[in-house]
Amino acid sequence: MNTSSLLIGLGLSLSVSLGCSHATTAPTTAPTVAATASASTEAELRPLTVAELSGFIDQNDVAVIDNNGQQRYAQGHIPGARWVGHDQVTASVLPADRAARVVFYCHNEQCTACHTAARQAISLGYTNVFILPAGIVGWTTAGKPVVAGTNPT
User: Is the CATH code 3.40.250.10 the one for domain 3-20+39-141?
Assistant: First the structure.
């Protein structure tokens, strides 16, 4: 591997890890029963496109949860999104109505923080849970606006 390929790979890895609050690594062994169960849960997660989420935001018909790192959230997030760590999802940070539409997002399609958070919401009894696989990268690439700052009080 030449030096420029190594630097490009390192740069890509770094950009993914800076945005994603939930680092993942490739498995080094055959899938386990737990991994197989996780794959079936994955199929239950309902993805939205950037355009679909934008429409729900325009209709004021969605709670949006950012699962990126706090620094990335403060740098720029989807308007109206609230930051919640992927491992800190509780009923107290979600809408009181468990049938409310809730969308989780993180950095991009390689980040799985929003998957973890969405599964937690489902386990708490939320029935209208979605993920935005494109994440903040897909949102900004589509030319959608972002807001800087911390969670509203």
Answer: yes
